[in-house]
Here is the input.
Amino acid sequence: MYQVNLLPWRLRALRQRYGFWRRMFGVQLVFALALPVTVFFLLSYQQEQQQRTVQRLTQQSQVLAERLQQTQQVMATLARLTAEETRRQQNARHNLRYLALLQQLAAVIPDELWLTALEENAQGISLRGFSGQYAAIALFEQRLAALPLLQGNRLAEVTQHKDGVLAFTLMARWGKDG
Here is the structure.
């Protein structure tokens, strides 16, 4: 048998196998290092996106909170102005009723009679005054009964002073609606 020196061929084959496995290990090492780096960058990107989203939503929330506060202030102002307008209208109606009552009283009051007080209370209205004649007080009471603003009028009190002047108090119902 011939003896053949296969040592250089074996050595070259071993080197080729060793190079192949070394390259395979290098590729695996690159993949093993690239995968965590890629995952890290993807997670960082996601986190930045989430932070931007949170920041945007926080800003929107602040804007909405400011708008809500402005809306509540406007609603409170509107409620206050509405209440003021309602009070003003009620006062205007009340003043018109008083004006109508005073005009009607001026038309029915006898010349011999003087009114000194006109007071409104929960039961109605009381009229106080003086007269030198009881007939003038009775005539005034009759004329008051004909007024549409006053109902159920009655003579509550008549007193005579030492000088002969009669002081009287008339009561009548004068409700909120008149």
The CA atoms of residues 98 and 122 lie 16 Å apart. Residues 1-108 form one domain. The chain has a mean pLDDT of 90.
